[in-house]
């Protein structure tokens, strides 16, 4: 019998290996509302640096979670969107957002504020 290629103690470890970290879930959450260009993501996530955004987008593309769409025009236009595989994360990302709303309310009450308000409709 062949040895396993990779062993995890729990499936949560496998999940976090792909989308864990400070910025990947945030990037993916924003992409659940449709395609985004680099500049749009920078405006939506003002605390991220361009270097980190580029790195995270590359890792998510490599993992097959998002796709980079390059439009051959002048000036160049690049967009990012979720793949079918990436769309399978939508429900958990939106649940994380709802939990975050509850957490901020419970811990900070009126002294807490969440700037991003999700659109009322989504692509899926």
Give a topology summary:
Layout: H1 11-19, H2 24-31, E1 36-37, H3 38-44, H4 50-62, E2 66-71, E3 77-82, H5 84-87, H6 90-108
Helix pairs in contact: 2-6
Report on the architecture of this protein.
The structure is a single chain. The chain has 124 residues and is mostly helical. Helices cover 48% and strands 11% of the residues. It has six helices and three strands. A three-stranded antiparallel beta sheet has the order 1-3-2. Helix 2 (24-31) packs across helix 6. The longest helix has 19 residues, at 90-108. The relative contact order is 0.14.
The number of helical runs is 6
What radius of gyration results from the CA coordinates? 17 Å
User: What is the element string, with H for helices and E for strands?
Assistant: HHEHHEEHH
If you average the pLDDT, what whole number results?
A: 94
Strand order of the largest sheet: 1-3-2
Q: What proportion of the residues is helical, as a percent range?
A: 40-55%
Most strands sheet: 3 strands, antiparallel
Label this structure with key terms.
124 residues, mainly alpha
Sum this structure up briefly.
With 124 residues, the chain is mainly alpha-helical.
């Amino acid at each position: 019998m062949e040895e396993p290629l990779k062993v995890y103690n729990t499936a949560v470890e496998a999940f976090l290996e792909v989308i864990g970290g400070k910025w990947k879930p945030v990037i993916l959450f924003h992409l659940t509302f449709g395609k985004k260009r680099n500049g749009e993501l920078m405006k939506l996530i003002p605390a991220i640096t361009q270097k980190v955004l580029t790195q995270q987008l590359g890792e998510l593309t490599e993992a097959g979670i998002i796709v980079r769409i390059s439009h051959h025009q002048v000036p160049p236009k690049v967009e990012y969107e979720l793949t079918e595989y990436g769309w399978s994360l939508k429900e958990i990302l939106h649940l994380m957002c709802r939990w975050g709303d509850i957490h901020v309310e419970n811990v900070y009450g009126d002294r807490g504020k969440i700037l991003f308000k999700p659109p009322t409709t989504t692509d899926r």
